[in-house]
Input
Amino acid sequence: MEHNEEPKKGRGTKVGEFFYGLLFFFILRVDTLLFSVPVWILLILHFAVGLPIKWFWIGVGAFFLVGILRYLLIVFARWGSSGEEPQKENKNPYSHK
Output
């Protein structure tokens, strides 16, 4: 492959990009970290009060389910947008082309 050729993107690349974005969505977003606070409280209650550990795992599952659904909402909201605005016709008679 020469240096001026772009690599072809296959299906595996899109899936990899999805999980890469999901990983950063969970790690770098402050609001996602704030939503994990109830899960940590459930874990503390397990050791302090004796709350069954299943409630912690239910909380972890709910945390990841809500996080994945939020990320999918963002991905599908941006789906199809190229990020570029269409060129508008210049109707100013005094500007040079």
